[in-house]
């Protein structure tokens, strides 16, 4: 607003002054010519001098406007950078026992964005190393919050979350993130090459490692179709990639450092074609195999790849078992399955 105000007032004022200056010179010199003490050449010269005198002032006004916009933008950037950290590293971080196995335990976890209104109310969940678990439940049941806690985007208010027996609050954040990777619901792509997008967490990653990840999750299929392959330029937010391609790229990024624990927030809308959907499902099956995984499953096709299903309802675990077991119970899962998933089967 400040920049616009200056642009709207300052520049026209300078132009007005320049016009008045030129008019004054024309009038003065015109009088001089009539009186005989000035020549036509002198008039032309003075008009030019006036123009030259005002040009730098005009330039200055324009630069000042640019400066004001830049300052407004930088205020916002520094505002974000100065946001105080809520999650801090412990003073004496504990190292995970080696080799890291990826066993997860939620013990009496209570959490709420507003502590007075808990979203998760006493969660107890043990996931042995290597098991793939799907979390299902109605919207707002607390599925994403459960995953956000394990990635330590927030801290629990009561209870604790343990990775290989160590409370994640006792781990350095880089240690936790080295072993727990998350694929968000709407993966972000940055402008740069495909390679730099896969290597987002560590640009030093070897080319072999990057290619291994891309091949494992079927991303190599589309990357190799670009004439410049891994050097293909991705536009800001991945606008020159399809939804499915962005998803595969996000899988490759998460898998590139071969994490022991994988968190996947499944996309609710399946806006990809059947061939891409098959590629994604195949990639998912390979990623989950033998790796501790928690998948927020919105699609039935995702559930097919997991060992176990946990049903969340209003912040509590109400059912836990295999697909067949839960269907036989004829409870929440049975209802959800018929409400949400049956239509998918029919499609
Ligand atoms: N950042 C936040 N700040 C405050 N409240 C939040 C925040 N994120 C989620 N909530 C609230 O917490 C509750 C649980 O949300 P959560 O996103 O965990 O549900 P969900 O089961 O993942 O739902 P969905 O399937 O729609 O993604 C909801 O009532 C939601 O409004």
Explain this structure to me?
The chain contains twelve helices and twelve strands. It is α/β, with parallel strands linked by helices. The protein has two domains: 2-81; 104-346, 3-Layer(aba) Sandwich (Rossmann fold), CATH 3.40.50. The strands form three sheets. The protein has a six-stranded mixed β-sheet, sandwiched between helices. A four-stranded antiparallel β-sheet has the order 2-1-4-5, covered by helices on one side. Helix 8 (243-255) runs parallel beside helix 9 (274-288). The mean pLDDT is 84. Bound molecules: adenosine-5'-triphosphate. Adenosine-5'-triphosphate binds next to helix 3.
Question: What is the total domain count?
Answer: 2
Poorly predicted segments? none
Query: Helicity level, as a percent range?
Result: 40-55%
Element-level helix/strand string: HHEEEHEEHEEHHHEHEHEHEEHH
Give the distance, in angstroms, between the N- and C-terminal Cα atoms: 51 Å
Strand tally: 12
Keywords: ATP-binding, Membrane, Nucleotide-binding, Transmembrane, Transmembrane helix, Transport
GO molecular function, one term: ABC-type oligopeptide transporter activity
Pfam family, one: ABC_tran
Organism: Oscillochloris trichoides DG-6
How is this fold's topology laid out?
Layout: H1 2-35, H2 40-81, E1 104-111, E2 120-127, E3 132-137, H3 143-150, E4 158-163, E5 166-167, H4 173-179, E6 180-183, E7 192-193, H5 194-198, H6 207-216, H7 219-223, E8 233-234, H8 243-255, E9 261-265, H9 274-288, E10 292-296, H10 300-303, E11 308-313, E12 316-321, H11 323-329, H12 332-346
Parallel strand pairs: 3-10, 3-11, 6-9, 9-10
Antiparallel strand pairs: 1-2, 1-4, 4-5, 7-8, 11-12
Helix pairs in contact: 1-2, 6-8, 8-9, 11-12
InterPro entries: AAA+_ATPase, ABC1_TM_dom, ABC1_TM_sf, ABC_transporter-like_ATP-bd, ABC_transporter-like_CS, P-loop_NTPase, Type_1_exporter
Pfam families: ABC_tran
GO molecular function: ABC-type oligopeptide transporter activity; ATP binding; ATP hydrolysis activity
């Amino acid at each position: 607003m400040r920049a616009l105000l200056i642009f709207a007032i300052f520049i026209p004022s300078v132009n007005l002054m320049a016009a008045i200056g030129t008019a004054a010179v024309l009038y003065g010199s015109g009088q001089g010519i009539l009186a005989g003490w000035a020549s036509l050449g002198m008039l032309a010269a003075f008009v030019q001098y006036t123009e030259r005198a005002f040009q730098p002032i005009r330039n200055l006004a324009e630069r000042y406007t640019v400066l004001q916009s830049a300052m407004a933008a930088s205020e916002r950037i520094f505002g974000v950078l100065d946001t105080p950290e809520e999650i801090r590293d412990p003073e004496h971080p504990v190292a995970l026992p080696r080799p890291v196995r990826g066993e997860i335990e939620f013990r009496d976890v209570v959490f709420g964005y507003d502590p007075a209104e808990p979203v998760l109310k006493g969660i107890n969940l043990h996931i042995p190393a290597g098991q793939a678990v799907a979390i299902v439940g109605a919207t707002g049941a607390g599925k994403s919050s459960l995953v956000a806690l394990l990635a330590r985007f927030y801290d629990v208010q009561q209870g604790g979350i343990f990775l290989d027996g160590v409370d994640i609050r006792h781990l350095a954040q880089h240690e936790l993130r080295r072993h727990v990777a998350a694929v968000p619901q709407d993966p972000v792509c940055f402008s740069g090459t495909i390679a730099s997008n896969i290597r987002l967490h560590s640009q030093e990653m070897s080319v072999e490692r990057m290619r291994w990840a891309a091949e494992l999750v079927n991303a190599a299929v589309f990357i190799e179709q670009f004439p410049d392959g891994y050097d293909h330029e991705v536009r800001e937010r991945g606008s020159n990639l399809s939804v499915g391609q962005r998803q595969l790229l996000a899988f490759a990024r998460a898998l590139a450092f071969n994490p022991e624990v994988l968190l996947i927030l499944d996309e609710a809308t399946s806006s990809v074609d059947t061939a891409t959907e098959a590629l994604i499902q195949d990639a998912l099956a390979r990623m989950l195999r033998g790796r501790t995984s928690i998948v927020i499953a919105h699609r039935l096709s995702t559930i097919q790849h997991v060992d176990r299903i946990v049903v969340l309802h209003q912040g509590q675990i109400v059912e836990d078992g295999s697909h067949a077991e839960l269907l036989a119970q004829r409870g929440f899962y049975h209802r959800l399955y018929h409400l949400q998933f049956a239509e998918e089967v029919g499609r």
